[in-house]
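User: Fold this one for me? It's Sodium ABC transporter ATP-binding protein.
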Amino acid sequence: MQRLELDNVVKIYADKTAVNRISLQVEEGEIYGLLGANGAGKTTTMRMVLGLIYPDEGTILYNGKPYNKELRRIMGYLPEERGLYPKVKVSEQISYLAQLRGMSVKDADKSLKYWLERFEVPDYYDKKIEELSKGNQQKMGFIAAVVHDPQILILDEAFSGLDPVNVELLKSTVKELRDKGTSILFSTHRMEHVEELCKNITILHSSNTVVKGNLKEIKSKYPREEVVLGTSGDVQGLEAIPGVTEVKRTEDGYSIRISQVDAAQSILNTAMSQSTIHRFEIKEPTLNQIFIKAVGESNE
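Assistant: Here's what I get for Sodium ABC transporter ATP-binding protein.
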């Protein structure tokens, strides 16, 4: 089931088009990646999804229906700029926010305590936000976004500023929410997180969609330009192979740039004739490489 659908959505401010005909669909139990450099249109898109601003053209549907105020109960939002009040206790403001989303006082308190236990910080219940570290303030913001068990969750740079342990904790939590059926619109500059979490993506640049679709299918359309070669000894003559554009020595072998995938077989044959091979991989392009190419090409 499509939880969230944007169809040819446009937003214009005076003479500037902030979002130009973006279309995407987020299924039930899916994490959808929304990517782009600063100013690309991501935040404007998320604000339209949240009903904070309205599109000038196009439609946004939630479970097949247009926006109405009751939808606030099924939506959660973690903004990039965290917005919890520093001098108010965690319990008071998160419970209040949950009640604004339609929860009873009792259910809000029960859910908050569950999430504090989940993040192994139950003693933060009576602490003020300003008493917590930046990373723990961020976790409280995440709890505020999910405490009412939303069907649709908007995450904007959810992992920024977190140490690796807490990044893994939040990633595992996001996956759990996905597996329970939550539909998540996920925006970040960290491409490795998108590769791990998202099945489908949209890349925006200067308000326009430059890449869209299934991540695996997108990767299959871009050439493989790197061979990783692990060897027990030196290999001579790799630079002379047709299609090889660069050879770098690594700790356990070579990283080789190629302009045509056919060069990979010649690399393997050359290496096998001179050394023992313990790794050979024609690497698929990373999302970071695809992003740079897509955004660069759209500027040409």
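One thing worth pointing out: The CA atoms of residues 238 and 267 lie 7 Å apart.
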